[in-house]
Amino acid sequence: MKKRMIAIALLILAGIALFVFVSPLKSHKAVSQQDLRDADFLDDKEALLYFSSSADQDAFGGGKSYALFISQNGSLSSFKMKGLELGSAKVHGDSVMLEDKNTIYTIKNGLRSHKRGYQHTGDSAGFLQNTDGFYTLYNSGYDKKGDGYRSELYRQMDGEWKKDVIPYYIRASGFHNGAIYALIPTADEKGYQLLQIQADQKKLTYHIITEWQYREGASVESQLAVDDQAVYFMVRGQKARNLYQMVKINKKSGEVELHDIAEYKNDEQTIYSSMPFSFKRSFFPYDGHLYFIDGFGKGYKIDAKTGKTSTAFTLSRDKMKADFREITQKGSSLYFFTYSYNKPAYIEQYSLKTGKKVKEKEIGKVKEIVTPKSHLKLYDFEVMKGF
């Protein structure tokens, strides 16, 4: 009897030891605003995810969002906020910006929050070098005081947030060298105007560069990519419904060029499947080229001057089946986040120079936050220093 009791005790101790060795490596911790005020909070963080419910879930106050911080040891910290459809989470150096429907949070040596008017739909966000602060842009809806649509821009200047109104609906936007570029519908809604918004000066100014007419049924399939010479974006259906083209607009002359990029089998399922899984991130500039990633995970490399296209890489087929997928580019690397319900999440790193996968990391506790009943969608993904 005594030997049996000793054996049972040893089994219990062994179980405890196994739990201690296995479970803490990939833990989950819900953090509060007080935790974010810790000046060292960001020190070991290497990736940031932004999940939120959609605007309809927030109609009666039930919306929510989460910023998920992934540490170098694979552990996960979650910060819960109110919801914001298409909201952003942004990283610049040792600074982070988060947002929900009525608050902007910034983290740098602690936490600061800014209450603002209600927003129901985000558009894009970034960092202004001249003002050493973030900006965030919203599609705010119809103006209650007028007949037109309005978008609102919040800019961090001298450490404080400044609000400006842009009296247009913004279909897509991009940022380069202190300016935000936006596609806004023409009055007859048969084309788009390219608007340049000079955002890095105290007084906001904007002007129209040119106008582009599109064919009925054509659709914009990406945010804007911008370099010193031109603004670029992807469209489908301008020439044929199964053909993706790159629109290139010269910033000085307003001249518009179209370049054929990718053609697919002309059937409904293939056309639907080819659509980029990330409107925000599927198209970006790097080192004199543009990169476009389609719904099959195929990455195209496009010469910015000539439009000549080649295949750069293909994302993992198994990972492309995931319930949640998002990409982000940092320098010469592309990062691919994937997660399927009740399974571990992963981040894969690809080299834009070689097209090869160079690293993969598992994140185990996303399933504790993002469940089928949570109604959360993935709206942003950023890689921080040290990944």
Descriptive overview:
The chain has 387 residues and is mainly beta. It contains three helices and 30 strands. It has helices at 2-22, 33-36, 268-274; strands at residues 28-31, 45-52, 65-71, 76-81, 90-92, 95-99, 103-107, 111-115, 122-128, 133-142, 149-157, 160-166, 172-176, 179-185, 191-198, 205-213, 219-220, 225-226, 230-236, 243-250, 256-263, 283-286, 289-293, 298-303, 309-314, 324-330, 333-339, 345-351, 357-363, 377-383. Strands 1-4-3-2-30 form a five-stranded mixed beta sheet. The longest helix has 21 residues, at 2-22. It is globular, with a radius of gyration of 23 Å. The model is unreliable at 1-25 (pLDDT under 50). InterPro entries: Quinoprotein_ADH-like_sf, WD40/YVTN_repeat-like_dom_sf.
Q: In oligomeric terms, what are we looking at?
A: single chain
Count the strands? 30
Computed Rg: 23 Å
Global shape: globular
Which structural class is indicated by helix and strand composition? mainly beta
Mean pLDDT: 91
Widest beta sheet: strand line-up: 1-4-3-2-30
Largest sheet: 5 strands, mixed
Can you count the helices?
3
Tell me the β content.
over 45%
Percent of residues in helices comes to: under 10%
Uncertain segments are 1-25
Rounded to the nearest angstrom, the distance between the terminal CA atoms is 54 Å
